[in-house]
């Protein structure tokens, strides 16, 4: 019997790029449904939800291809309804498609949060050493470094827009290379396998891509 994967995006659905990458990791025949926390808003409505500060800043790509900076608090307020709609769609497994750290939210029981997947992988692969982060927005760097900090691990971060070209990814990787990292974590669900490949060409160290790492965990849930 085919299983159904429900994907909650922090922006708007549809996101064909996200659905395609998850479908590639899911068991054959998995039905994918997607809902967005900002569904139903026009561009003006989205622009009316700017982040309050760096700690409240989230990056999303809209279905039109436009990059948007949005408020995490606004996403949290709308997330319970988004998750409820996915459950009504018959989702057997749910993923909240953002690497941000979120507080407990209504209806989040059993939901997979990619930040926990990435954190677990990084802790297992790098008990001590230097962890390099790629983050979407410059203003997120300090907050996300704090999120990843743990004893025995040094953190360095570089901003890289997920919509950037390969040359921009390589330039960010070259800046990270000066710090000689042992492991890279790409801290956004909109980074692509192509961007990961560009980063690895420069750094030559293990690199964690959030969406594929999360997709492989979801396969375990759906198999």
Describe the model:
α1 crosses α8. With 223 residues, the protein is an alpha/beta fold. The model has no long low-confidence stretch (mean pLDDT 95). The chain starts with a strand and ends with a helix. α5 links the parallel β7 and β8.
Rg (C-alpha, Å): 17 Å
Top-tier CATH class of the largest domain: Alpha Beta
- Residue windows where pLDDT falls under 50 for at least 5 positions: none
Mean pLDDT: 95
Number of strands: 10
> DSSP helix count?
8
What's the N-to-C terminus distance? 11 Å
Q: Rough shape?
A: globular
Tell me the structural class.
alpha/beta
CATH topology of the largest domain: Rossmann fold
Helix coverage percent: 25-40%
**Biggest beta-sheet profile:** 4 strands, parallel
Order of helices and strands: EHEHEEHEEHEHEHEHEH
- Which strand order does the major sheet show? 2-1-5-6
How many structural domains? Answer: 2
Which architecture of the largest domain does the CATH hierarchy give at level 2? 3-Layer(aba) Sandwich
SSE arrangement:
Layout: E1 4-9, H1 16-25, E2 31-36, H2 43-47, E3 57-61, E4 67-71, H3 72-88, E5 93-97, E6 111-112, H4 114-125, E7 129-135, H5 141-148, E8 153-159, H6 166-177, E9 183-186, H7 193-203, E10 207-209, H8 210-222
Parallel strand pairs: 1-2, 1-5, 5-6, 7-8, 7-9, 9-10
Antiparallel strand pairs: 3-4
How would you sum up this structure in a few lines?
By secondary structure, the chain is of the alpha/beta class. Helix content is 39%, strand content 22%.
Sum up the structure in keywords.
223 residues, alpha/beta, Rossmann fold, four-stranded parallel beta sheet, 8 helices, 39% helix, globular
